[in-house]
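Request: How about a record?
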Amino acid sequence: MKVAIPHWQGRVSPVFDASDAIVLIDIERGRERRRENFRLASLDPVRRAQEVAALGADVVLCGAISRTLESALNGAGVDVKGFVCGDLEALVEAFLDGTLSDPCFQMPGAQRGLSSAAPRPAGHRKKSARHRSTSSHSHRVTKEDEHESGHQR
């Protein structure tokens, strides 16, 4: 199995779409056999997915990733485990040990990615933009605002 990980300064790159450095790790019988570093040439999601697939990657472990790039990778036969973070060496070890779902490897606020992401509690719904704008934290309109905008409430 070949695992590709975009990286920056010894850590998983925070956004795969913008990262050009990728390490390809060849894993055999649960152990690392070989490691090679590559530079990705394209920022176009389809071409980038083709580059990764051409390296022989079976899976990509990455930080944030756009849905377009994730879909292109899946279409090219590459599995994606997104929204992970941390030290590159610790992440590789966690992948080999089967502990990648540990919260310390999850990006803060990540809602998709690894299958172990916690579902929302029953009955919990995301507030719509309309509800957020009328919350107690919304901006108060003053007489000066009305005068400047030309609108009255």
About this structure: The beta strands are 2-8, 11-12, 21-28, 31-39, 59-61, 79-81. Residues 113-153 have pLDDT under 50 and may be disordered. Helices lie at 45-54, 67-75, 88-97, 129-133, 143-149. The first strand starts at residue 2 and ends at 8.
